[in-house]
Amino acid sequence: IVNRAAEVTAPLVALQKDVTELQTGLLEVQNQIDNALSNLRQQTFKKTTHSFVNPDFYLQFNSDLWISLKSGIDEVQKFKWEFLTERAWLPILQVILALALALFIRHHRRGSQITEEWHFIAIHPWATGIFVAIISLSALYTNPPSLWRLGISMLAALTAALLVSGLLANRRKKFMVYLLAALFIITQILHLIGFPAPLYRLYLTFLCLMGIPFLWILAKRNIKAHDDRMDVFTFALKVGAGVLLVALFAQITGYSNLSSRLIVSSVNTVFLSLFVAMTIRLGHGGIRFLLTHPVVIRHPFFYRYGDELTARLSNILQVFIGSYSLLSLLVVWAIYDSVGQAWSALMDKSMTLGETEISLYMVVLVILILYLAISSSWFLRAVLEAQIFPHRDFDRGVRDAIKKLLHYSIVFIGFLFAMSMAGFELKNFAVLAGAFGIGIGFGLQNIVNNFLSGLILLFERPVRVGDVIVIEDQWSTVRKIGMRSTVVETINKSEIIVPNSELISQKVTNWTLTTSMARVVIPVGVAYGSNVPQVLTLLRESAQACKDVLETPEPSPIFTAFGDSSLNFELRVWISNVDRMLTIRSEILQFIDQRFREEDIDIPFPQRDLHLTLKEARMMKHLADAEAPAPEPEG
Q1: CATH: 2.30.30.60, 2.60.120.200, 3.40.50.11010, 1.10.10.10. Which one for 425-513?
Q2: What is the model's pLDDT at position 635?
Q3: Residue 479: helix, strand or coil by DSSP?
């Protein structure tokens, strides 16, 4: 058995040894590459070649230079046909994808299915198809020939320029996009043919000399076109002119790597910004297209919350693409070698607070978990409101209570989970709980009182959303019950914030707690001498003439008292909706006035008896004689 085990394990041991040697070799190669990139990055701000005023620079233009250039051109022209035979399916797949996508856009671009965000691809369907086919499948090529890479790059640059131009209305911006695309293609050609360094330096110098005045003049014209106001495009043009000026000075003085880095990274930054803007617009259009599709919009959840879900998903897309573009920007400017390396380096950044080390990764993780908790709470509450509650006989107050408790529970669990993932032990919260208790005892008791009162309102429900209440002589409608306060709306449409503790501890009249039916009492006075039975009959008829008055309980006219100036009556009626109390009262009063006029029943003015003493009587007579006109003299 031992011999058999030795025979079986011997090949495995040999294989493990080979794998270990291979891993060691790969690590050595990786270290060499990292060291080379580090050295290259360090040479960016070092003088790496001769300046233009140095005679040694011009000695480089010899026969060897031209031989090297010709050799590079000949090498590019060699096309390896074996490449197509090995991966013939990939170009065919790209062509099929481009044709299918272009035809699909042409077929649907006149309909309502193309959203506003996708309008720029509807203008250029063929460019969209080619661009998507290149971007999505070109990564599958392994070691393609130089001419093939050049063709792919040219198609990608031209189609991207066409698509970006569809997003722009300013013709100067469109011209700059096409110009940058042309410069990108020319630069790619020079790199492929192995353009000699001295000639490439002259090429960059020529770009700087031509670009500085061109960008400056274009910025001046753009400012003039916008009434001497500087916009973002004008600012970018001036920054570009400044970068070219610095690059020109660096190239002349022999800082070739710095000059090349400034120009190439600036152009790539512009392309990256345009690509990000186009990707975000495509993503927004895709989200809106999916969530407004007739098949999707049939569901109550998407019909009711489709717009809010679109906004939330669009924000997530913007954050993701924006974060990735920032990491890519660090790669573009050669700060890091890859997006993964940039992410790892940034996440390792940390700071120490006391004995706790807080890293950027920890902060991002906490924010992500809290956001997921809040988003999950919104999603579950929306599903309950759109899909579950309509099929269940739940009161509005019960619905609000379930949703609020679900929200606070999920957020609280998410907070605890985030703190745990961040490295905080839950036992440390005991200290915070003690401090919180002291805070409650001194300064937070009103807040806690309102919070607990809010829980009582949600569970006991003496006041519900939509109830008509009277609080401090204010007729109001409850609009929102929060955990700390309740929002009520008065008849004048003003909103009052009422602490929850006041709704629990004070007297509150709720007109709709068990029923919305209410009684309306209308006082009426008639002149002395009126026929009392006739008045009672007219009052009953006036109540019955109003269609909103309930038949059961029936209207009740009552003779209440002998007043100072009138016989006093009350008409008591019942209505089904307290919200229409004032309107119904007004209608009944109109009916009463009409019937009293028809039957000649007077509603008297207030009357008062005035008693004068003898002295006051003489004074009144004296005033009357003084105001009387004097007699005319006899002729």
Answers
A1: 2.30.30.60
A2: 45
A3: strand
